[in-house]
Design a protein that fits this description.
Order of helices and strands: HHHHHHHHHHHH
Radius of gyration: 26 Å
Distance between the termini: 44 Å
Number of helices: 12
CATH architecture of one domain: Orthogonal Bundle
Number of strands: 0
Helix content: 55-70%
Largest sheet: none
CATH class of one domain: Mainly Alpha
Strand content: under 5%
Shape: elongated
CATH superfamily of one domain: MetI-like
């Protein structure tokens, strides 16, 4: 038997093996969203070094427009708008992150427990979830905030406890599907404990859904906190993006043409919400190949 000879073409280029690319760093929406979020976090961290004046100090001429002395002008009470915006970044981001994390934690706990355990546990948790889904969350938050007179930590708790149900319903549906997969059934038959099955088999396959729910919960917390402060039901003594809008509305800044008072916090709320939305959309594209844009070479 003759051996097949391999003919090497000297003009041919060597075969190059391409390294696997991280789809997160090659997604434009993800890069823009992460960059905007990092910028807001940087402002919140270095805020004490870039605040020009005390945010509530009424020591300047009221109603001044933007200038070199006051980059975003002054309020009707003579307060520096730039300093208030920097301080408000810390407070608004703190409420958004913490309320979103707590709401997502409750959703993961209820959703996975309901889908994994089944039986009467599933029935009770499903009824509890349906109750929170039926009750309108925004009126409930308004009522609790109006009667309890909560501070920032109380607002975080109220927002989290009223916004976990949608995430729990989605996670329960996913958990019901995963518990029937072969690898989960084999893990149970192998004698693994329930926490080993959940943290080793079920939860890793729900990571994208959990992160997506976290981003949505953060957006909801940001808008809810700003809405409560704008209505005067939040902690109006603290400086946040919502309280800036509240005092601007009370002082009729729009009628008096003081646009530099209410435009910056409004743009900040919209920009941070857009950054979270872009990151959420990019996560959907990365985890779902059907949503990726196919480039034709």
């Amino acid at each position: 038997m003759q051996e097949a000879s391999v003919v090497h073409d000297p003009t041919s280029s060597p075969v190059k093996t391409s390294k696997p690319r991280n789809p997160l760093w090659h997604n434009t929406k993800a890069l823009i969203g992460l960059g905007m979020i990092a910028l807001f976090i940087l402002v919140a961290i270095i805020g004490p070094w870039i605040e020009r004046y005390a945010p509530n100090a009424e020591i300047f001429i009221p109603g001044q427009g933007p200038s070199s002395a006051h980059w975003l002008g002054t309020t009707a009470l003579g307060q520096d708008v730039w300093s208030q915006l920097v301080v408000g970044t810390r407070v608004s981001l703190l409420v958004s992150f913490l309320a979103g994390i707590v709401a997502t934690f409750i959703a993961v706990l209820v959703g996975i427990a309901s889908g994994y355990a089944g039986g009467w546990i599933d029935n009770i948790l499903s009824i509890l979830t349906n109750i929170f889904l039926v009750i309108p969350s925004l009126p409930l938050v308004i009522i609790l905030s109006a009667y309890l007179h909560l501070g920032n930590w109380g607002i975080i708790f109220v927002i989290a406890i009223t916004s976990w149900a949608w995430g729990a319903r989605s996670l329960r549906s996913q958990a019901l599907t995963l518990v029937q997969r072969d690898y989960v059934v084999h893990a149970k038959l192998a004698g693994q404990a329930w926490w080993q099955v959940i943290f080793g088999e079920i939860l890793p396959n729900m990571a994208s859904l959990v992160v997506s729910g976290l981003l949505f919960a953060m957006i909801n917390a940001l808008l809810t906190e700003a809405g409560l402060d704008f209505l005067g039901l939040g902690n109006i003594n603290a400086v946040s993006w919502g309280t800036m809008l509240y005092w601007a509305q009370n002082s009729e800044a729009l009628i008096n043409g003081m646009w530099w008072w209410f435009v910056p916090p409004g743009v900040a709320i919209a920009a941070f919400g857009a950054a979270l939305s872009l990151l959420n959309f990019s996560l959907d594209e990365i985890t779902n190949p059907r949503l990726r844009q196919r480039k034709v070479r």
